[in-house]
């Protein structure tokens, strides 16, 4: 399992773009730490974040939890890549 934290509480930070409470936040232990925020409003489309949002939009019982885990990892990879990191710690490349 990768060394990262995904945090979901009742007191989520707000999205800097739309001001809504974030759906998920994560902190990657890379460099000084990379804070990521998933917004149901802004993170849409065919991106790792958008696919995660699509799953979160489903009723709780209908979410494909196996995919959810994969999408979380994809999302974290995208966040790491956006900061110039090729992979997140303890996560082998490929699948
Ligand atoms: Zn937003």
Written account of the structure:
With 95 residues, the chain is an alpha+beta fold. The chain is 28% helix and 14% strand. The protein has two helices and three strands. Strands 1-2-3 form a three-stranded antiparallel sheet, covered by helices on one side. Helix 1 packs antiparallel against helix 2. The protein is globular, with a radius of gyration of 13 Å. The protein binds zinc ion. The site of zinc ion has 7 residues, from loops.
Task: List its salient traits.
95 residues; 3-stranded antiparallel sheet; binds zinc ion
How many structural domains does the protein architecture include? 1
Overall geometry comes to globular
Question: Could you give the order of the helices and strands?
Answer: EEEHH
Strand content: 5-15%
Helix content: 25-40%
Mean pLDDT: 85
The count of helical stretches stands at 2
Q: What ligands are attached or bound here?
A: zinc ion
Radius of gyration: 13 Å
| Strand order, largest beta sheet | 1-2-3
How many β-strand stretches? 3
pLDDT < 50 stretches: none
Structural class: alpha+beta
Question: Oligomeric form of this entry?
Answer: single chain
Short description:
The protein has helices spanning 48-56, 65-82; strands at residues 5-7, 24-28, 34-38. The chain is of the alpha+beta class and 95 residues long.
